[in-house]
Every structure is written in C-alpha cells, then in structure tokens.
Amino acid sequence: MGEKTTSKRQQVLRRLKESISQGRAIVGGGAGVGLSAKTQEAGGIDLIILYNSGRYRMAGRGSLAGLMPYGDANAIMLEMARETLTIVKNTAVLAGICGTDPFRDMSQLLKEVKDLGFAGVQNFPTVGLIDGVFRQNLEETGMSYEKEVEMIKLAHEFDLLTTPYVFNVNEAERMTRAGADVIVAHMGLTTSGTIGAQTTLTLDDCVVRIKEILDAAVKINPEIIVLCHGGPIATPSEAKYVIERVNGIHGFFGASSLERLPVEVAMKEVTQEFKSIRLPARLAAPRVVEIEMAHLSDRQREELHKSMLEYLHGSNFTAAYNALKQDTGVEYTPDPKAKYAGLLEKKWTSVIRLQKKIMDLETRNASLQEELSIAPSKRAAMQADWVPRAPAAHVLTGHRGHITRVAFHPQYSILASASEDATVKIWDWETGEFERTLKGHQRAVHDVDFDHKGHLLVTCSSDLFIKIWDSENEWKNTKTLVGHEHSVSSVRFMPGDQFIVSASRDSTIRVFDVASTHLVRTISGHSEWVRCAVPSEDGHLLASASKDKTAKLWDPRTGECKGELRGHDNELEAVCFAPVAAYAAIRELAGLPITGSKDPGAYVATGSRDKNIKLWDVHSGQMIKNLAGHDNWVRALVFHPSGKLLLSAADDKSIRVWELSTGRCMKTIEAHSHFVATLAWGRQKISTAKSNGADAKTGELEKLVNVVASAGVDQTIKIWLP
C-alpha cells in the first residue's frame, strides 16, 4: 500500500511550524481584490484571508462595514473566491465565514468552500467586535458567538484549517476546545490611515491582553499557534513591539495593515511625485505673448504692425509682408523716409541693452542681499522668525520602541528622550552624537523634564514610578517617587523646582515634594485617564488634558478646579499655556484690544484626537479659535518664542506652523515616516563674549540659537536647526 496522502490542512500546518522553528514570524493578511492577494503572495505571506470587509475596505469604507446590513457576507466571500483562488498559486487561502448566518446550512457552505479550493476558514464577520446591550441581545436571540464556535468545530471536522478571531480569555478557551489550529488575538479595529479607528488600546495594554489569551489557549493545546491582530498594531514596528514582549506568540495577522494602509501610502506618494512634474517653459510662452499683446493700445498696435511691415518689405520678405498686411488689415505703403523705417530694429536693440542692464542690476542686488544677510541686525531678525524646514540637521537613532517625549537641557546642548523601550537616552543635539542610556524603569517611559538649572531630570513610566536623575553625578537615579495607582503619563517640575506635578491613568494629578519625595497633594476631577498636566509660567495654575475630552484648570496650592474647557469631540492629547509674548497675536485673533493683562496663564492651546487644535481664554473658559488642518490625532503643541506662531505635531506624520494672529496654517513639514508623538523647542543662550570684553562694545555678548526636536513611532529623533 502507498503512503497516506496528507490533507491540505496538514500541509499548511507543517509549513507554518517549519517557519516557526526557523525563527520566522507567521504573517497572515486580508485581501479584498485579486491584485492584493497576488502581491501579498509575491511578498511571501503565509496565509491569505478573503472576507467581505476586504471588499468594503478597498472601496474606501471602514472595515466595520462588513458588520452592517450592506450585503450577504457569505455570498460576497464566495464571489471573491472566484476572483482570487485562480490567481494565488502556492499560498493557503482562507474563507471568512459568517457563522451566525441563519439562512445558510453550515455543513453545505463548508463543503462548498472546501470544494472551491479554500484551505481553511475564519469567523468573520464576527459578533466579537460588538459589545454592550446590542451584543447581549444577539446572544439572547440565537446570533451568538457560540454559533461561530460551532462553525469552527464543524470546519475542523471537515479537515479545514481553522484560524478564529478571539477577543478575550473565555473565547480563546472555547475556540481552542473546538479544535482551532490558530488563534488570532483580536485587539479591535485597526487604527491609522484615512478610515482607521481612533479609539483604541495602547500597545502595552495589548501586550497584557494577548498574553492572557495565549496562556489560556496553550494551557488547553500546547501546539496551538497564536497570532496578534488589530487595534494599534498597524505597522511592522508595532507588530515587532508586541511580538518581542509576548513570550510564545508566533506572528501577526493583518487586514488593513497589509492591504489598505500600504495602498494609501503608495498611491499618495506616487500621485504626489507625478504632480511634482513641471511643464516646460516653452509650453507657457505663447500664452505670455498673448497676454502682453492684450495690453497694447490701438495706437501702439498700429505702430507695431507698420514697423513690422516696413521691416519685412525692406528685407525682401514679400510673402510674409503680404500675409501680415492681409491678416492685420492695415493700409500701409512702404516709405524709406517714414518714421517706421528702421523702428523695429531700433526697438529691438534697445531691448537687448535694457536686458543687459537688468541682468547687471540683478547680480549687484544679489551681492548686496548677501552682504545684508550676514549683518548682525539682519541675522538677529532672521533668528527670531525662524521655523523648522526640511531636511532635519540630525536624525538620532538608537531607541527600540516608540519615542514618547523629548526635552532640552536649559543650559547645554543636551537632549533627553523617553521611550516605550523602558529607557531614557541622552544626546548631544549640536553634534547629533549619542551619549548614554539611563536604565531603571521596568516599563514604557512616558515623559521627561529638566529642572530650570538642568541639574535634575525627572521621568515617569507605566511601572507607576517617577524617578529623579542627577545630571551632575553621572546621571544616577537618586530618588524614586511612588503614589499613582496606574501608568504615569506626564511629569513636570513646577517653577522654582521645589515640587513636581504628575498626571496618570488613575485619573488623578499629584504634586510631590522634590526634597522629601513625599506626596503633597492629590487632585481629582477628571473621570478618565489624565494625559498630561503642565504648570503656568508663574506656577499659579495647572492645565490638564484628559481622555474624558476636557481640559481643566487647577490651583496647585489648593487643588481647586478653576475652570473646565469643553468642546473637543475626542480624547485630548496635549495642552500648553501660551507665553506672554503670544498675547498680542491671540488678542488680535480674538478681536480684542491688543493691550491687556500680562499675567501668565491667560490663554491655553489644546490638541485632540479629533484632529483639531483649540485656543482658549482661561478666565472666561471660551474658545477663541479652532485650528483645523491635521489629518490625524494631534499629539504635541509648542509656542514659538516670538509669540507669533504655534507649532503642532500629529499622527499624520507632519509638523504644522500656525500664524496666531490669523489662525492660518502657514507651513506644513513632512517630518517623520510615522506618527509624530512629541515636539520640543530649545532656545538657548550661548556666550560669545571674549575675555577682554571686546565683543561687549558691539552688544553681541551672546547669540540666540534656535533648535527644535521631534520624535515618535518611527523610533527616530529629528533635530531641526537654522
């Protein structure tokens, strides 16, 4: 007897396990059209999934359209099969089956799927994406997740590869007992791009949840394969982040990540490249001549025509002479003594001489402009109005996780960066050189700040700790502050450096004494995660931004809430006080008298996941202006030292420059290849005075150096210099 032939399911499982044994991550991906499947196979993908949301996604709709009553999900999948199965040659293709479909006999459907050539199935559309009362009602009326479990069990009996989505430990256990070969831990709708979700878990939250699901499944079946999917895990760097932190996970399953997002990026970039092509100047020349001709008076036009006729006649261009005379309708008899004789040649010679004079003047003007630009007064003016422009002066690399915050030393060319890789790194921003890594936190570091002298550095982390580092003592961790009950997302020195203010996911703001490390005050009032809390310049106010869609103003000495700013449609990510230098521009924008109070803390700016920036009057609580322009979450805000401009950074990978007096976006910088999470302005005074005091006579005892740093998910820090 010959050897027993292995089934398609067994062949696929063998390939997957061989890949795992060789240290290669398993990658599965959704395909909404045949070209996507063909391209994914060319890239070496392990599994291709066909389900209705893929079709909707590539039609420019969100993936959740697959859960709405816009079509027969199983019929759409079968239609996609005829397009895709004939084009994929060597990769396992899975069918996304709506297991709760009450109008299908699952046995017949699974048989049809297998006969068509599918290697396996997945439970999509899935009620696992639905929660609340609606989900409860589905469970109660026979359209429950248990129907999907039954479908997976039946598919296993048909010897089809089974790769169900699970959303929690209970579902993981049920699907594993039903015979699932691969468990896909689903973290929710994928973020990013033009139609991605905005409400999602953090990567660290995903790590915890996926680990729980993996442990539950492996406890029942140690051979099961576990993949991660969805939520904030949208790019290879984010998948890598999760895989490196969840021991035992085998890879990533993407739909939007492997189809919609790459298409959005590639098509946009190629279109922009085509649009950057400029037409040759010669194509525009005839139109310019036509416009110039239109500005001639009737008398000038008649003189031009007669001088041209005189020139053609004198040059014996008889045919051209007759043609021009006929076309213009001018009655003219050539006369060598008439004023038109030689007029065209004289005018042409004059134009040549004038053109040479213009060129000489332009050369002289350029030389004078160059001299003027290096004059001390001009240089100072240029420095005062400087804003970043591409390319960045330095690109700093070394972090192995998303960079969450950067901070400049107030005296030296030192930059500190915090990262989700649980470290803080110290850099020389002037040279772009790495100096050292500070290790001590056990989880993601979310914020970093120097005191006003630069002697101390404070950091905070998801490990619940706030740490103080001594920059004058080998950057040793000299103090650790405790008190928060969840991730600490923000930390700042208060003016005077006696106190530290922190914000946390435990919904509180806390004030600590630096010297004793004691908790001085707990400020409560937000109903959700407090993303950040920052002090005003004089320390009399705190501004906080929260997941509860509000910003609040507080008296840090009493903990009293002094005001609430409400108007954003999504979570707030950033808040900052406007410097006094910005008051005139903000009042002009608001239509208020330019003169007024110079007390710090009069105005704040907020940035939100609703893609908007808002300027607020602190005393009245009224919004002054909404600045719309970013295409994704606004993550960071910083006012220009001149007070004329506001800089913002966002998940659309850009930095934008806003003119405060008009609210107009005057510049957009394509800053990073991924989300921009942080932005900082370092304006330092560097002495240039000589010891003999000679420079003092010129008034140039020091010069102001502008520097901006930005960083984010692409794990790079960019230094922008004049």
UniProtKB/TrEMBL annotation:
CDD domains: WD40 (cd00200)
SMART domains per UniProt: WD40 (SM00320)
Similarity comment text for this entry: Belongs to the WD repeat LIS1/nudF family.
Keyword Coiled coil carried by entry: yes
Domain PAC1-like LisH-like dimerisation: 298-332
Domain TIM-barrel as annotated: residue spans: 11-277
Function: Positively regulates the activity of the minus-end directed microtubule motor protein dynein. May enhance dynein-mediated microtubule sliding by targeting dynein to the microtubule plus end. Required for nuclear migration during vegetative growth as well as development. Required for retrograde early endosome (EE) transport from the hyphal tip. Required for localization of dynein to the mitotic spindle poles. Recruits additional proteins to the dynein complex at SPBs.
InterPro entries on file: Aldolase_TIM, Dynein_regulator_LIS1, LIS1_N, LisH, PAC1-like_LisH-like_dom, Pyrv/PenolPyrv_kinase-like_dom, TIM-br_IGPS-like, Tobamovirus_resist_UPF0261
PANTHER family documented for this protein: UPF0261 DOMAIN PROTEIN (AFU_ORTHOLOGUE AFUA_1G10120)
Domains (record comment): Dimerization mediated by the LisH domain may be required to activate dynein.
GO BP annotation list: cell communication; cell division; establishment of mitotic spindle orientation; microtubule sliding; signaling
Quaternary structure (record): Self-associates. Interacts with NDL1 and dynein.
Keywords of the record: Cell cycle, Cell division, Coiled coil, Cytoplasm, Cytoskeleton, Microtubule, Mitosis, Repeat, Transport, WD repeat
Gene Ontology MF term list: catalytic activity; dynein complex binding
UniProt-listed SUPFAM superfamilies: Lissencephaly-1 protein (Lis-1, PAF-AH alpha) N-terminal domain, Phosphoenolpyruvate/pyruvate domain, WD40 repeat-like
The protein's name: Nuclear distribution protein PAC1
Superkingdom of this protein's organism: Eukaryota
One cellular component (GO) term of this entry: microtubule
WD repeat start-end pairs: 396-437, 438-470, 481-522, 523-564, 601-626, 627-668
Coiled coil found in the keyword field: yes
